[in-house]
Sequence to fold (1121 residues):
Amino acid sequence: MSVNEALDQKTPTENLENWQPKILVFACNWCTYAGADLTGLSRLQYPATVRILRVPCSGRVNPQFVIKAFQKGVDAVLVCGCHPGDCHYTTGNYFTRRRFLLMRRLMEYIGMEPERLQASWVSAAEAQKFQQLITEVTEQIRALGPNRKLRDVQWEQWNN
Amino acid sequence: MKRVGVFVCHCGTNISGTVDCAQVAEAAKDFPNVEYSIDYKYMCSEPGQEMIKKAIEEHKLNRIVVASCSPRMHEPTFQNCVERAGLNPYYVEMANIREHCSWVHPNEKEGATEKAIDLVRMAVAKAVRNQPLQKTTIPVTDRALVIGGGIAGIQAALDLANAGHVVDIVEREPSIGGKMAQIDKTFPTLDCSACILTPKMVDAAAHPNINLLTYSEIEKVDGFVGNFDVTIRQKARSIKMDVCTGCGICMEKCPVKVDSEFELGLAKRRAIYTPFPQAIPNKPVIDREHCTYFLRGKCGICSKLCPAGAVDYTQQDELLTRRYGAIIVATGFELFDYSVYGEYGYGKYPDVITGLQFERLINASGPTMGKLQRPSDKKEPKNIVIINCVGSRDEAKGKSYCSRTCCMYSAKHASLIRDKIKDSNVYVFYMDMRTPGKGYEEFYDRSREQYGTQYIRGRVSKIYPLNDKLIVRGEDTLLSQPVEVEADLVILATAMVAQPDADKLAQKIGIGYDKDNFYTEAHPKLAPVETHTQGVYLAGACQGPKDIPDSVAQASAAAAKACGLLSKPEILTEPIVTEVDEKTCAGCGTCLLICPYKAIDLKTLTERIAGEIVERKVATVNEGLCQGCGACTVACRSGSIYLKHYTDEQILAEVNALCL
Amino acid sequence: MGTMEQLTLQLRETAREILESKKAAAVIGWEMGTFWYSTAPAILTRPEETERLVWNEYCLNNLAKYLLDFQNTDEKVAIFARGCDYRGINRLIQDKQIDRDKVLIIGLSCPGMKDDKKARELGQNADIPLAKKCEECTYPDALAYDLWVGEPKEAAKPAKAEAKVFPEVESLEQMTADDKYENFAANYEKCLRCYACRNVCPACSCRECIFGNSSKEWSAKANNLSENMFFALTRALHVAGRCIQCGECERICPVNIPIMLLNKKIIQDIDHLFGPYDAGLDPEDKMPLGSFEFTDPEEFM
Fold:
């Protein structure tokens, strides 16, 4: 039995018809979180698949959070911050860029579909961009189906 | 015991129109640590807030989750509310179920409700782990430092001093005055630059609250808002300032002559000199690089002649450390070095000069006493060409930006020439005329209509000497025709660029700078004179090309900001900063590399291990400098530096909660 | 073989001289292990002990990390160093775990060590291949040193990194996502979480590792594939831009997990994304994840 087959057996059976992806968005307080607020203020619609987690700066997002999120059952992670040059803290997003350039490649290397970890710059004014981003990522993840890779089935069984 | 209260807001129908708020409140009752959960029409209203306060009391709640609009909207409201009920304001956590939920999923009622429940679960998980945080106060030293003694620095210092604050101006040249002191007349009024500048210089020097530290440079900046410890290097002037009377005999007899920086090479100065006659302080310095006494160990004429005995060859640089509450950076600009342009002669033709050199040539106190003559043969020029945008708006060889002042000073130069030499012809080559200031367009009109300046839209492709003339070749793009002018003198409107060492000073202070080395403001629209480092403000052209009115306006704005800071004995600081777990910190210093505010340092920790005293290094955070971005925490492999309110534990609890 | 034996004598001589003249309080080198194909790190403090030192084709241990034993002393420590030890020493200096002036580096040129596992299999008379980590070595010699043992060397040229490409990483990259994952999972299904890879690594010098520190959130109680993978990836991230490619993690792994496959992937990506970089050549250089350029590749959407 291959590891994948073993995982399939262990994964709690999900009703794929009604299945909705769970997408975690790390949003920096100053640009993307405000941009997501503006998306709401502008009444632009996107699928209810995302959960936004507010951090002061995208530089606060530890790549280890991403692994943990996949372990616990998130289907995709999106890391968002201010555009280069616009960081509220001057340089935080430049470190984010380096860290996640490497992290995305590493995750792809171990077999994670690249769509499942993405990064984007969304400013406080880019409501439309945020709407499109979430819509696109949701479509991509719906096409991929639930994530099984890295998942900690034991944890899920204990906690559900 | 953590006892969480959950308050779900309908926001009229803004939320409840999409999200089933009662179902959210009901679901929250099952979350760990939740003791009380309720939904209500308007949580932010007076009755809503009363409801929270009452529930805190009745149910002994010590953590509050409000599920409503964006925390960017009402977090302070609910923080104040729980504070009034006796709880620490940082015990509040908000779930954004309006902007991030009901408003964006109006057609997915079930999905929106499910999402709202998730968001509340995440907020509860975080709230349970919230720690009480206290805003702390730090004292403010009522003394300001102004770096740079040009018009911006002088204006800022005068405003601060007049408001009752003590100010030190540090100027690296022997005199204050800056670039404005070199200028002849100012646009758009054509009043004499010296006539409006020198009184301000005198005011600054005479002001009881202002100390001038000329011929001095910033060595080091430590500390943080309200408490900057600045080390200033006072360069050896070789003159006893308290003894010198400024009589000037020393300068007359000095045998050494070198190019004057102030006159931009158009005249000579001595090795013992003041940069210009109205210099303040009007006391000379000895240029040790050129002084015969310092080069060969003999001469000493100035010392022998000085009636006051003020010359002191043994003086050394002195370091002075002072504490300041605020810093205003007003270090100005430099001019673009146009020698990269082969088409303008690489800086080799003597009769191709810069606009600032022209200011000296036309200035009554300049090297020619204001008589306009060409540098090569002292003849009066009849045909003069002015070229705009030399180094500006040229990404290939110069700078991408517009230098903002050149269109106006070229119009001024044209008018001044036509005023002095009635039978002259002045041609201005330009790309676009930009005259957006008050009275600027009218001034430009006058230079054409009243003074007869000829404007040619187009770039100059080549300047080359022919006999004693300079042939200027270009294109008139409006007529689509090549143009050629036989010029006696060519004036280049060279770009304003940052000071060559602007980046080094920025690194010392800990402020940002852009790709062109101009200092970055905290926000281009809403915080144009602040920097990202609290307590450091910007004035004048160090932030970007500016003319005199704009520099003065920005200087006064920076002074007002500094006054606001200095007028309080202490300031409150945000408690969301990083902290170091000294027990596990290995002192590797990686976090120091990440911090944009230089808020982290290494300190030596002494501890006793198995009876022996052992020293080791650990990181330490200056809470006055830390702005709470948390970028350092990710670089720490052992998780020994953490951001309060956004710890790994708190963020991971949210991630876990989202998956339950 | 003759030359290594001669060098062994020189090593002993040098170590004896250092201890006798008290130029250093201890010397770190190698001594014979239990088998003919094994050696062990030796920490010597008395001149007469220096007879134990050896320099043979099985000196596989990277010595740098043993300097940490002297973190709390004021005395100087001498250490024999080839290229890999030298880079390990620089790793510790850059991580501020040791002071350069407390270390006396005795430079060596390394001919490449032999594979001890193969030696055990094939026996003493067989032709034993080089250890994998030595086959790929690009810096066999110490690049800077206080003393040198062996043939006099030309002054070390300033080393310059080149963009590296690892064929085994490239071939993995060609696989489908599911095959990659299956391969990765199969490797880490075996992991015992013995942390030997961490303990041997010169880039792992935390006072308290997040794995094993129960007060920090990261440490997982469960020992399952998911947590093994979290450990593997986190370890790789922690040494990202810091790995000196000594290959000790992989050599020491009791269940033969190809750990360097992760390290090499990151090294290769760093070279190609941020410019060629070899960790441990210069303690003053800019670490790839402790710095950035405004012009870094822009792949954020």
User: Anything to note?
Assistant: Chain B has 18 helices and 34 strands. Chain B has a mean pLDDT of 95. The two ends of chain B are 22 Å apart (CA to CA). The longest helix of chain B spans residues 109-128.
